[in-house]
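2024-03-11 09:14:02 INFO queue: dequeued item Secreted protein, len=158
2024-03-11 09:14:02 INFO validating residues
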Amino acid sequence: MLTRIRRRGLVLALATGLLTTQVVAAGASPAAASPQDCEGGANGFRDIPDTLRGTQAPVAPVGIFGRTATLYYGQVGGVTRGWAHLGGDTLSGDSVWMDWTKDGGNTWLQCGPFEVTSGGQTKTSAAQRTSSDANWRFRACLRWGRHEPPHVRCTAWW
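2024-03-11 09:14:37 INFO prediction written
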């Protein structure tokens, strides 16, 4: 009797996990996940210094264990652009990226990840121009270390 209950519990747990995986897999996903997709002018991005700050976008920064990802915007090369910034108590292996969407978040291009190579270092994504189009949006994301499963936090879309 106890074995049958355990077996039902296991089947229910597996079915729930499979359903959850399918729901997550069916959701939106990035179109790319490489720094090369946004470095050196690719896709309209502009390389910026890792120390660059601008005006904080009106979305709350996200953080974990003393690290903070913030979405900024400002003038870069005479154009208003947005970018992701990672700061705080960073350690080697932490990374930051910026997701950019042109369809309100259904699909996006992931600009990064850009990895911190030494503790205390700040890091930015490349910068992309802003737009008055409501579907043209950004969010900043961070990954803490190289843990599996990854510890990832992203801001809301702006």
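2024-03-11 09:14:37 INFO annotate: Residues 1-27 have pLDDT under 50 and may be disordered.
2024-03-11 09:14:38 INFO item closed
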